[in-house]
Write a structure and sequence with these properties.
Layout (H helix, E strand, L loop, with lengths): L2 H6 L14 E5 L3 H12 L3 E5 L3 H9 L3 E2 L2 H4 L4 E4 L4 H8 L4 H4 L4 E4 L5 H12 L4 E4 L2 E2 L2 H6 L2 E6 L2 H12 L2 E7 L3 H29 L4 H8 L7 H11 L9 H17 L5 H15 L11 H8 L8
Parallel strand pairs: 1-2, 1-4, 2-3, 4-5, 5-6, 8-9
Antiparallel strand pairs: 7-8
Helix pairs in contact: 10-12, 10-13, 10-14, 10-15, 13-14
Length: about 300
């Protein structure tokens, strides 16, 4: 039985058969990368991890992963990268010599970056016989840990066929075109998502300014036409006064900036996205970048003199 067949027969939240001994690596163990690494370990892959933060590496080695070294890279079938921005991705892949170490192997990038960055990496990879899979993800750490991410995959059909067993282990593949198209659709998705967050937070704050009880406001809107995915998902964090980063605000600001960059390069105007970006930029400048994206609420609490989670 092939790895792909074994994976397809398993429930998303159950470990795969222990006979799967494929070796994979993952570079970048932040909230998303660390959760993907956890999933790979529990899915039965021999998993090697690398991150600049020793504590992040230690958390995964405690779960059964091994530390990735230059020597171990040669034994891997696949390396995943999950990194915060273009500069870090370029350093990890192009400036480190990783491609030469991966000759004949697969590189799957989960990061959200400019399409041009992953296209450049794919061009460089040709000389090293490395297959590049452009696969940014939708979903948070819980979905990553359970193998329920949506994978926005840009790759050739042939390369996707080879990589699919590894992608299937972490989520649901949505093939959207060639390399670069995954990044493009992820930028579109995150522009819409963060616009959703900004409007939901601002409107919720207005309700509190008008004296509505926070819980009652949430309950009624969540059953009405104004509800949205991010209203339903993130406003409860406000009610619980828990702004720990499921998707950090600084990443939201960065993704909106990516959208404005590709729009500018395409001579496409995005006035609404520009305004939304400035809201996130203001929150980042206020020092809220490491909190969840819904920490935008703190801007409105300060401006309006409200307690967003209160009852008065």
């Amino acid at each position: 039985m092939t790895i792909s067949q074994q994976i397809s027969e398993q429930n998303d939240t159950t470990a795969l058969d222990s006979t799967i001994t494929s070796s994979v690596g993952i570079i970048g163990l932040g909230a998303m990368g660390g959760s993907v690494a956890h999933r790979l370990v529990t899915a039965g892959f021999q998993t090697f991890v690398r991150d600049l933060d020793p504590a992040a590496v230690a958390r995964l080695t405690d779960e059964g992963a091994s530390t990735m070294t230059d020597e171990s890279v040669a034994s891997l079938e696949v390396v995943f990268t999950s990194l915060p921005d273009d500069r870090t991705l370029r350093a990890a892949v192009l400036e480190s010599g990783l491609l030469s170490q991966l000759r004949g192997k697969i590189l799957i990038d989960l990061s959200t970056t400019l399409p041009s960055t992953i296209e450049e990496i794919a061009e460089e990879a040709v000389a090293h016989d490395v297959r590049v899979i452009d696969s940014p993800v939708s979903g948070g750490p819980p979905e990553a840990r359970d193998g329920r991410l949506v994978l926005m995959v840009g790759a050739s059909d042939a390369d996707l066929d080879v990589a699919k067993p590894f992608l299937d282990a972490i989520g649901i593949v949505q093939h959207v075109g060639g390399v670069g198209k995954g990044k493009a659709i992820k930028i579109v998705n995150n522009t819409m998502a963060m616009g959703n967050v900004a409007v939901a937070v601002e409107a919720f704050a207005l309700g509190r300014k008008l004296g509505l009880d926070a819980q009652r406001l949430y309950d009624v809107i969540n059953q009405s036409g104004g509800r949205s995915f991010h209203f339903s998902k993130r406003i409860p964090y406000v009610l619980d006064r828990d702004l720990s980063p499921r998707f950090a605000l600084y990443l939201a600001e960065k993704d909106l900036r990516l959208a404005l960059t590709v729009a500018h390069d395409s001579a496409f105007a995005m006035p609404a996205a520009g305004a939304i970006h400035q809201i996130f930029e203001a929150a980042r400048a206020k020092g809220l970048g490491q909190l969840d994206s819904v920490a935008l609420i703190k801007l409105y609490e300060d401006m309006a003199g409200i307690d967003a989670a209160g009852s008065d």
